[in-house]
Write a structure and sequence with these properties.
The protein has 16 helices and 25 strands. The chain is of the alpha/beta class and 591 residues long. The chain starts with a helix and ends in a 5-residue tail after the last helix. Bound molecules: adenosine-5'-triphosphate and magnesium ion (MG).
Length: 591
């Protein structure tokens, strides 16, 4: 990374995050939520009430250098959400000033993801590159005002002159160039006369400012790179800090909401708008979303994709919006999640379980029930008539029986889950065992009478009897059974590929790699387990994206890979939080 890049976009600086965390004490965090309003909504309400603003206009400003992730979902919901709540507007603006890393593919993916989450930007889709001409004119204006100069130091020299957090910077030898010379050089930079890195345009502020960002920040650099929208028209590109505030201002953005790592940049944001005397947008920072067992940085997500650790940006293990969508997470669940975690200035890490809770809650209301068996064991009902088929009724939504039933075929040979039988059951195992009676969901009581084995001792099938008086699964004579099992009819069930996804990382903070290692070093080897299972015949040809709850197993989503032939189901989330248990199991293996 060179010095220009270092000031291009701030990395998340622990110092900033820490300061913000202390600033927002526990009581502040409480106060922030008073009246059901976070500090941003409270601030906007006050701006309107006290007539500092008469409208609310926000923007979501992604850089098209990767796919959006769940952290962006927080920003999308916040920006589009407050605009809607206060009767204002929210723009979608691509912050496309770094041609080397940006592409049309990313632009298209971002548009799709924002729309899917419910963001409506109307016809206000903007690109920083749309403003290149005006940004350039403003730069000439700053030069003419003596507020910007062309510096010809190398990137390393600029860094050396800039000083450090504890050391003030010094003025470089080109700082006092005259306006005419600066204008001439800058125009020649634009004309493409110089090689990359030969000169930069810098703001003339204060080389010794206590805020490093204000030590004559770079505004423009020479970069002979083809831009995905402007082609080869520009050999110079403006930097983020210079571009963002001007775009905000030109679009009439009233509230420019961004994450805490930009807090130190706010002084520069204000300086640019004040110097040019254009519409004063105002920047406010909030804490970015961090999630356990998840990386939320496009740079790291690219490493996962390019390193082949996942099957692409929309792999269901990815925290990308497209990955979550493919996994079967409904947009409502993401919006609910964002609302639940709230917005504050206190940096924190949200437990992934909170997200799973929101997904379950949503799918519980929207995913109809079905039966599937992942690891089958055959059951033969000795006393059930051969060739007979009965259609049992499974409520689609047990809590809302009026919403109807799924009709499921029942016959003499069934498949149950291998785990639901134990030849030698431990205490508290309430499922099937020799001589024991259980209920088959919405069907009959059955009793295990015999265990059939292969010569090598593996269990091939169970011979059971059923009680014809217990049809529908009700008790015929008040007789109690403790277990209820799911099942499918062997002759009717449809084979399906079932993809069982789990966390991609074993560490709570995957970016915290062990000494000597590089990222990623804690990939969960069991983050994807594929099994060949059997599903109810009504799910022979599900629509891609369709969600169901396989009773007792979890919420699943039909994957588009299944549209060619046998259905493919992806597990969205288990029914309960099983991770707590798993964590104990795997704890000794982690350093
Ligand atoms: P990354 O660090 O993942 O590359 P970024 O900040 O570079 O993300 P941008 O495309 O510039 O990504 O982000 C667009 C908007 O989304 C910015 O306003 C940014 O502050 C916000 N954003 C990015 N990550 C998060 C996050 N984890 N939580 C909340 N908002 C975020
Ligand atoms: Mg970034």
């Amino acid at each position: 990374m060179n010095a220009e890049d270092a000031v291009a976009r701030p990395a998340t600086e622990p110092a900033v995050a820490e300061a913000a965390a202390t600033e927002a004490s526990a009581t502040d965090a409480h106060a922030e939520k008073r009246g059901g309003r976070d500090f941003i909504r409270a601030m906007i309400a006050a701006d309107l009430a006290e007539k500092r603003r008469d409208t609310v206009h926000t923007r979501f400003p992604p850089e098209p250098n990767g796919y959006l992730h769940i952290g962006h979902a927080k920003s999308i919901c916040l920006n589009f959400g407050v605009a809607e709540e206060f009767g204002g507007l929210c723009n979608l603006r691509f912050d496309d000033t770094n041609p080397a890393k940006e592409s049309r593919e990313y632009v298209d993916a971002i548009r799709e993801d924002v729309r899917w989450l419910g963001g409506d930007w109307g016809d206000r889709e903007y690109y920083a590159s749309d403003y290149f001409e005006r940004l350039y004119a403003f730069a000439e204006q700053l030069i003419s005002m003596g507020k910007a100069y062309v510096d010809s130091l190398s990137a390393e020299e600029i860094r050396a002159y800039r000083g450090t957090l504890t050391e003030p910077g010094r003025a470089g030898p080109y700082r006092e160039r005259g306006v005419e010379e600066n204008l001439d050089l800058f125009r020649r930079m634009r004309a493409g006369e110089f090689e990359d890195g030969a000169h930069v345009l810098r703001a003339k502020i204060d080389p010794a400012s206590p805020n490093i960002v204000m030590r004559d920040p770079v505004l423009y650099r020479i970069r002979r790179a083809r831009h995905h929208r402007t082609g080869d028209a520009w050999p110079i590109y403006p930097l983020y800090d210079y571009t963002h505030c001007i775009c905000d201002s030109l679009e009439g953005i009233t509230h420019s909401l961004c994450t805490l790592e930009f807090a130190d940049n706010r002084e520069l944001y204000d300086w640019v708008l004040n110097s040019l005397d254009i519409f004063r947008s105002r920047q406010t920072e909030f804490a970015r979303l961090n999630l356990t067992r998840t990386v939320l940085s496009k740079r790291k997500l690219i490493q996962l994709v390019e390193g082949g650790h996942v099957r692409g940006w929309d792999d269901p293990r990815m925290p990308t919006i497209s990955g979550l969508r493919r996994r079967g997470v409904p947009p409502d669940a993401l919006r609910e999640f964002v609302a639940r975690i709230g917005v504050s200035r206190a940096d924190n890490i949200v437990d992934y379980a909170v997200l799973e809770f929101c997904i379950r809650e949503r799918l519980n209301a929207t995913a109809p029930r079905a039966l599937a068996v992942l690891r089958p064991l055959k059951v033969i009902l000795r006393n059930y008539p051969e060739g007979q088929v009965e259609w049992m009724e499974l409520p689609l939504y047990p809590e809302e029986p009026e919403k109807g039933v799924r009709r499921i075929p029942f016959s003499r040979e069934l498949l149950i889950e291998r785990d639901d039988f134990r030849e030698d059951p431990p205490a508290k195992f309430h499922r099937l065992a020799p001589g024991r009676e259980v209920r088959l969901r919405c069907a009959y009581y059955i009793t295990c009478e015999e265990v059939l084995k292969d010569p090598d001792g593996t269990i091939r099938a169970l011979v059971c009897s059923y009680d014809p008086q217990s049809r529908g699964g009700g008790s015929p004579d008040g007789r109690k059974v403790r277990g209820t099992l799911h099942w499918v009819s062997a002759a009717h069930a449809v084979e399906a590929e079932i993809r069982l996804y789990d966390h991609l990382f074993l560490k709570d903070d995957p970016s915290d790699v062990d000494p000597g290692n590089t990222f990623p070093d804690s990939i969960n080897p069991e983050s994807l387990l594929v099994v060949q299972g059997y599903v109810d015949p009504s799910l022979r040809a599900p629509e891609a994206g369709e969600s169901v709850q396989f009773e007792r197993l979890g919420y699943f989503c039909a994957d588009r890979d299944g549209s060619a032939g046998a259905p493919v189901f992806t597990r969205t989330v288990t029914l309960k939080d099983t991770w707590a248990k798993l964590e104990k199991k795997s704890a000794p293996g982690q350093g």
